């Protein structure tokens, strides 16, 4: 691709914060018979990086920063799988150092259960690629393989967990860390090294298509979930053979695009950026995250992929991040084609790398454009060297030069094991939120005569799994219908009818569904949305789906959520409301189960349906988990991590908006229908004996908060206790209240637990008018309760 080389290395290199001065004798003092320093495992990583970079040409350095699309890089054969000619060509002509989504299978990649790879073959494929680069390139630098891992490794035959919005609804970081370690193991066993995730964008715009990928609207909860994912992914050491590098997405403020349009501009002030949108990323970086992905959007006119303030001043200088930054797919070329801040692709490459981007996802942002920018002098050699060093350092730290291969037999044995499936059921159970339960409609009796299971999401595996999911064997997924059937056995008659689709209205069976419900003891109606891509969907270069209506005579896809499917309203689409109203009219008790990726309008259901359960996208064990909740084998303890609005006219709706308190509209309340932190239980809990003690000054404050939670019912249950803080007077405008601590506590029937939290100065800080972070003296209020709207105890303390 390139036709010339330049000097081997610049005079100096900044590696992990240390200024390295190159000494020629270090490289030239070796005999031809000795092994190069970079191939000696007993040498320091720093020395190995220096040695290797001293041997690399400009083409090889530039190639290390290219992350190409990986699913075209293998070929299935009669005997197994091997590296493709496309891979060999990319290695030889472009010196690539990384691949993305090699094992991904979905309609975008056109990989199916037949053309994609089961875990053992996946391991063989990645081994074949590694073997080729180790044995057929001049320096034998192993590949880094990045995979999508938000709620399971996005590959065939892996374990599918609830999407992130459901994970956050567990309010259980320890459980999410355990889940992340399983995702990492399944990825690493197949030859992956980097897991894309977690997504730490605050979701304060429910019309946006990617709400399901987030942990909701709150900075603190997002941060705790981010820490859990990073610890689970990376473990004690990325050299373990069981862990992967965590890539945080999307840096930053991506989740609040104007009008809900995915990837468009964001209007966020600097103070709000630092108070709300950056803290979850900071938490995850301080937990050790080794990679960060830039966002597609711009902030105050600066695209995130060319924002040196964010990537260098904040991420590296302020937070001490020493990993590598990767662009989102196509976002470097997007500086020219989308944002129009670069006149040429060469200029776009220069803007990105100078801003702190180290790796090009897609492989067409840097590559020849970066090479040209270096040759023309637009990009300095030491800037390139710093980026390459960050990538090489992680290859050495992961042990890939010594152990580039994986064991296909272990992949076959351990991926989607029975233990992993059990964990998927546990995460799904804990993610289910009981929104309403009038007259103790739930739990259901297992001795009912007839149960009608109705709705487009009652028996549809892909509508249950969410976006970023690979094709699945039907036997791997338990739908709601199947979960109910397994729960009640053959003694109870369970009848099913779809009733309608999510969006299409040409094949609805409203009357038939109502007739079925009328004959039943209870009707379980499963509605919501879908992020299920199909092979007829068209896609952008960024992998986002293109929204399109059906042509005359064609059936409309169910997909109304997932990347690219932004909404104007939050109404249930198609004939779903007609179906629900027709069933309610029969007089049969109705339990509404919602499976979806974003908050939807539930005003009518809240007024007319006695029991409402929100399961988000619950993953492969969703049917079993929902049945566990419906029949009382699991007492629901999920809590909302995002507010459910009454109308799009209220947006944005989130609990910790800034003072002053909002007043109602002419048409109705300004409050959300269901508030952040809301979720019911089959138990009843009482909060008593709040005690607040503070000591120290503003610089070293410690506030100890204790209280008791009693289970006053006859049912064992878990309670999510939530502690909020309100700063009564501050020099800049503060939120009405802020979540600062929470815990999920098991309280047996008739028993009580004492809960203790400790706050520090970090929890009480404000950004003052000069953007200095400090604790201001004054009075703070402590609010303890079951949700942001269900406060049971109040206290206060003073800071001198």
TrEMBL record:
The keyword Protein transport does not apply. The keyword Hydrolase applies. Gene3D superfamilies: Glycoside hydrolase family 3 C-terminal domain, Glycoside hydrolase, family 3, N-terminal domain, Immunoglobulins. Residues 719-788 form the Fibronectin type III-like domain. SMART domains: Fn3_like. InterPro entries: Cellulose_Degrad_GH3, Fn3-like, GH, Glyco_hydro_3_AS, Glyco_hydro_3_C, Glyco_hydro_3_C_sf, Glyco_hydro_3_N, Glyco_hydro_3_N_sf. GO terms for molecular function: hydrolase activity. Belongs to the glycosyl hydrolase 3 family. This is Glycoside hydrolase family 3 C-terminal domain-containing protein. It comes from Echinicola arenosa.
């Amino acid at each position: 691709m390139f036709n010339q080389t330049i000097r081997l290395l610049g005079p100096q290199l900044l590696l992990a914060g240390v200024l390295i001065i190159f000494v020629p004798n270090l490289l030239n003092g070796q005999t031809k018979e000795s092994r190069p320093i970079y191939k000696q495992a007993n040498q320091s990583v720093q020395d190995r990086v220096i040695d290797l970079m001293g041997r690399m040409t400009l083409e090889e350095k530039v190639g290390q920063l290219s992350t190409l699309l990986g699913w075209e890089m293998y070929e299935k054969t009669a005997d197994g799988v091997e590296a493709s000619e496309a891979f060999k060509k990319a290695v030889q002509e472009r010196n690539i150092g990384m691949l993305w989504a090699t094992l991904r299978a979905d309609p975008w990649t056109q990989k199916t259960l037949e053309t994609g790879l089961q875990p053992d073959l996946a391991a063989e494929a990645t081994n074949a690629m590694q073997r080729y680069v180790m044995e057929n390139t001049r320096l034998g630098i192993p590949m880094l393989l990045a995979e999508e891992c938000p709620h399971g490794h996005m590959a065939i035959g892996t374990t599918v967990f609830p999407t992130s919005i459901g994970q956050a609804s567990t309010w259980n970081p320890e459980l999410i860390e355990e889940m992340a370690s399983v995702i990492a193991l399944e990825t690493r066993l197949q030859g992956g090294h980097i897991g894309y995730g977690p997504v730490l964008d605050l979701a304060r715009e429910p019309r946006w298509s990617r709400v399901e990928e987030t942990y909701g609207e709150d900075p603190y909860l997002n941060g705790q979930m981010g820490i859990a994912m990073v610890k689970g992914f990376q473990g004690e050491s990325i050299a373990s053979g069981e862990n992967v590098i965590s890539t945080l997405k999307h840096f930053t403020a991506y989740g609040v695009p104007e009008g809900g349009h995915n990837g468009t501009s964001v209007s966020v002030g600097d103070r709000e950026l630092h108070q709300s949108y950056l803290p979850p990323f900071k938490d995850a970086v301080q937990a050790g995250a080794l990679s960060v992905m830039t966002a597609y959007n711009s902030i105050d006119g600066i695209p995130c992929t060319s924002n040196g303030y964010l990537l260098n001043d904040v991420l590296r200088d302020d937070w001490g991040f020493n990993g590598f930054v990767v662009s989102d797919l196509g976002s470097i070329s997007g500086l020219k084609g989308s944002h129009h801040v670069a006149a040429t692709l060469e200029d776009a490459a220069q803007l990105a790398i100078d801003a702190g981007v180290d790796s090009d996802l897609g492989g067409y942002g840097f590559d020849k454009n970066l090479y040209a920018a270096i040759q023309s002098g637009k990009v300095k050699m030491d800037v390139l060297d710093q980026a390459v060093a960050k990538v090489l350092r992680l290859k050495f730290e992961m042990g890939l030069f010594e152990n580039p291969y994986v064991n296909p037999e272990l992949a076959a044995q351990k991926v989607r094991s029975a233990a992993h499936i059990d964990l998927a059921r546990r995460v799904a159970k804990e993610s289910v939120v009981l929104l309403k339960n009038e007259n103790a409609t739930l739990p259901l009796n297992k001795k009912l005569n007839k149960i009608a299971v109705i709705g487009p999401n009652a028996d549809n595996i892909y509508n249950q799994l969410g976006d970023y999911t690979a094709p699945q064997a039907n036997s791997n997924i338990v739908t709601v219908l199947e979960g109910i059937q397994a729960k009640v056995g053959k003694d109870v008659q369970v009848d099913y009818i779809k009733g309608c689709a999510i969006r299409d209205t040409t094949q609805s069976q409203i009357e038939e569904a109502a007739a079925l419900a009328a004959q039943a003891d209870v009707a379980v109606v499963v509605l919501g949305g879908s992020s299920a891509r199909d092979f007829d969907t068209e896609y952008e270069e960024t992998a986002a789906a293109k929204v399109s209506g059906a042509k005359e005579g064609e059936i409309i896809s169910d997909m109304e959520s997932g990347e690219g499917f932004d909404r104007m309203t939050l109404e249930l689409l198609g004939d779903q409301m007609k179906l629900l109203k027709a069933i309610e009219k029969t007089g049969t008790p109705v339990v509404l189960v919602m499976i979806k990726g974003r908050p939807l309008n539930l005003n009518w259901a809240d007024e007319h349906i006695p029991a409402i359960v929100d399961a988000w996208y619950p993953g492969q064990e969703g049917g079993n988990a929902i049945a566990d909740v419906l029949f009382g084998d699991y007492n629901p303890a999920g809590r909302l991590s995002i507010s459910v609005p009454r109308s799009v006219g209220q947006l944005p709706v989130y609990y910790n908006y800034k003072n002053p308190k909002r007043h109602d509209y002419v048409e109705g309340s300004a409050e959300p229908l269901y508030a952040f932190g809301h979720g019911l239980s089959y138990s009843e809990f009482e909060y008593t004996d709040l005690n607040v003690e503070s000591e120290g000054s503003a610089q070293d404050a410690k506030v100890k908060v204790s209280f008791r939670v009693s289970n006053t019912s006859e049912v064992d249950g878990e309670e999510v206790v939530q502690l909020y803080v309100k700063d009564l007077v501050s020099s800049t405008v503060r939120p009405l209240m802020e979540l600062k601590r929470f815990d999920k506590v098991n309280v047996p029937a008739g028993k009580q637990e004492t809960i203790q939290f400790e706050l520090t100065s970090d929890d009480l800080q404000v950004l003052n008018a000069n953007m200095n972070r400090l604790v201001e003296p004054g009075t703070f209020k402590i609010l303890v309760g079951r949700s942001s709207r269900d406060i049971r105890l109040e206290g206060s303390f003073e800071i001198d």
